[in-house]
Design goal:
The chain is an all-alpha fold and 114 residues long. It is 65% helix and 0% strand. The chain has helices at residues 7-21, 26-32, 39-45, 53-62, 67-70, 77-87, 93-112.
């Protein structure tokens, strides 16, 4: 876990890293949060502006990350898949269920050592 002094800097750095990995500009992320400009994102990423819990949850959703990632905690791989599936509006419920069943089947096979 991160200490209180550098929490904003750490979280901002994680947001920047996830945003860049997602191929988004600061303005893209700002628009997703309904900010008027990318300046707010720049300030958040630099640790100069604290991010609210509500905005952090929105950022996690937009960037397809578990909120734990931004807090320096371990993300579960299954959570990543589930977050990505929830975020993709072009996949039907039936397809999402089939993918999740396949993941469970693969985990069970791995646990049995096959």
């Amino acid at each position: 876990m991160i200490n209180e002094e550098n929490k904003s800097v750490f979280i901002g750095g994680q947001i920047k890293k996830a945003r860049e990995e997602a191929g988004m500009s600061q303005m893209d992320l700002a628009r997703s949060l309904r900010f008027e400009s990318g300046t707010a994102i720049s300030l958040i990423e630099g640790g100069e502006r604290k991010v609210t819990a509500e905005n952090l949850a929105l950022i996690a959703n937009v960037l397809h990350r578990d909120i734990k990632y931004f807090l320096g905690e371990d993300e579960g791989k299954a959570v990543d898949v589930k977050v990505a599936l929830r975020a993709d509006k072009n996949i039907s419920s039936e397809d999402k269920d089939a993918i999740l069943r396949f993941i469970e089947m693969a985990k069970n096979k791995h646990e049995r050592g096959n």
